[in-house]
Amino acid sequence: MGCCSSSEGKRDWKPLEDRSCTDIPWLIIFSLFCIGMACICGYPIATGAASRLISGYDSYGNTCGHNNTKIEGVPHSGQNMKEKKYVFFLDPCNLDIINRKIKSMALCVSKCPSTELKTYGELKQFALNNGSNLCSYDIYPSRYPSHPDRFTKCPKLPVPPSKPVPVLHRCIPVDISCYAEFAQGFITFVSDNTVLRRVIAGVMASKEIIIGLCLLALALSLIMMVVIRYISKVLVWILTVLVIIGSIGGTAVLWWLYVDHRNCPE
Prior knowledge:
- With 266 residues, this protein is mainly alpha-helical.
- It contains 8 helices and 6 strands.
- It has a two-stranded antiparallel sheet with strand order 1-4. The chain has a two-stranded antiparallel ribbon with strand order 2-3.
- A hairpin with a 6-residue loop joins strand 5 and strand 6.
- The protein starts with 23 loop residues before the first helix and ends with a helix.
- The mean pLDDT is 80.
């Protein structure tokens, strides 16, 4: 019996009691889709050395912070770098504009130099104190000041101070002038790249049309929201009729093209 002598009776439908699973086939399809996507993502992570993107690697193929396997034909590869987690570039400000990368030898180090190192003697002392060799692996720290290859296999002096990045494990210079060279290299790349320059020139030449189309899209979206709000039923019928007409018209056109192709002489 309802409130105030109403005639409402007991409901037959009990949403909290009469429950059952629905859309089981679609749930199975969605589960298979999720499993497939997990396999697709897991395979490149397991076989593509995705850790190299985060941990970084040196010029000899060793992943920093990992125990590496020997690479045939590559010297100094296959070393245990578990204690050397950071990537150090001998000349971090030397940017290769053509290939868009740092044109410098990369080494795995255990600590980034926090202060400026001006001489090879300071490089030697830093390596002996921290166990972090800033020259190539085939040069012992005691030979830094006198080794004949110190100008090519040791960092360019003076070595700017740098800080380790916890996520990407790179030694990033703190000198602002280095980033100015990166900005200049980027501007040079943009000015020298023909395709990118054409794209930017096309956008700048058509900026009025692009802005106008954006405003038109905004206005049409607002009108569509109002239409959906007040005449949703009419809109549904209009869309249904348009879909039906389009389907029939498209089918007729395809059949006409098929018949015309069949009747066309070879």
